[in-house]
Amino acid sequence: MSIPVNKNDVVTVDIVGLTHEGEGVGREQGFTLFIRGALPGERVRAKVLKVKKQYGYAKLMEHEIASPDRVDAPCPIYKQCGGCQLQHMDYAAQLRWKRQHVVDNLVRIGKLAVDGEAAPKAGAKDGGATDAPSQGAASAGGGILVHPTVGMDEPWRYRNKASVPMGMGPVAAETIGAAGASQLIGGFYASGSHRIIDMDACLIQHERNDEVVAQVKRIGRELGVTVYNEETGRGLLRHVMTRVGFVTGEVMVVLVTNGYRIPQLDRWLAGIREALPKVTSIVQNINMRTTNVIFGDETKTLWGSDVIYDELDGIRFAISARSFYQVNPLQTIALYRKAVEYAGLTGTENVIDAYCGIGTISLFLARQAGHVYGVEIVPEAIEDAKRNAALNGIANADFEAGAAEVVIPRWRKEGIVPDVICVDPPRKGCDPALLETILAMKPRRVVYVSCNPSTLARDLRVLEDGGYRTTEVQPVDMFPWTVHVESVAVLVRE
Ligand code: SAH
Which family would the database say this protein is a member of (predicted)? Predict the structure, then answer.
């Protein structure tokens, strides 16, 4: 096909969809243009920025037709930051889009039949099995029931954790007493670069996290702390991580440093404790590698506890610095309750919780199961999980550190027979060896919690081909104003 547009052309295009990154998808004479900030249903004028063989990028200039779902982004740094991608879209429309995004992945990648959707086409070109069996007419029922996304009543200030890169530069305009000169700042990377822009408020963060970051920056400036420079590899402070327990109010501050020694450590600690009385744990993580990964391997407690505590649905959790803990605690309760409901427990079942983190889902399940076995790759998280079981007087849960795809096959050899397996893998989805083991263990049900609809769909296809049927999927909005979609699916053995 010849390419109908050139760089710098100004074109008028209809927007037909949103990519998984939140860009509007426009078509110009059959050629696809991605246009940041444009919404489905809009007609926009856009200037072509970049042309590739199959697609191009264009910049939104003006609207000829604006979507009724368009709203003004409330955050003043929305466009520069890139942390949120959908602040220009009405919240209810976002929830509808997230459900549809899950559906589209199930149909296109998983070749799965979804109630109310056209049946998936065998051999469709965009990934997945090419010889999928005919699924019949989905809209006739019998396909997967994908529920409306569970949204938040108050979808702001929902995050319990912030990881903020530190740098040198001009401080944010709003900072009181700010001078123009370059000094210690912290905020976000300007989109498409590693230049740090100072930030003093993030509308999706708990206010306390904003306050912690602001105070740590102030103390750092007063003490003349050096800041890590990616290019030279010199300077001390790399990131500040802060996590707040929504129920307990406890706060952990983690200073990620390029080196062991923190000059004037006593003044650091005194400064933090004085300005932030809710801080119960100050931790140092040492990361001396040239990497984008935030945390290094070594963590040491500088003051206070090794963990902070929080509570979800009446269960108390100890959370250490490097352990995974869901960032939106309100929605996490909705998600976990749904996972437990989908597990269909009566009090006698053996349940495996793979990718269990600090044992959150495991302990929710343990309240209704005979016995729960949790497995997780981060050893500190398993320490937390054991501590959490004890903390809540839960005796029917065991935890083991290791890769799920290694440990669970071993459990199988040892004779553990699960009635239900729950998985909650990272974005890349389940390891194929784990899926194989699940099929070999033949649990009555599989509950799949996923933060990535495309790997969810891929893995559901494998389980379906192995004799399971996906009956329901519940999307839950854990990350309002961003393109991220969490969902929980239930599969039953045919
Ligand atoms: N279910 C937990 C954690 C989910 S996040 C919760 O809801 O809090 C996914 C977890 O999988 C992380 O804790 C990560 O450390 C862990 N993980 C990543 N790869 C793994 C693997 N191969 N085997 C076991 N756990 C793994």
Answer: Belongs to the class I-like SAM-binding methyltransferase superfamily. RNA M5U methyltransferase family.
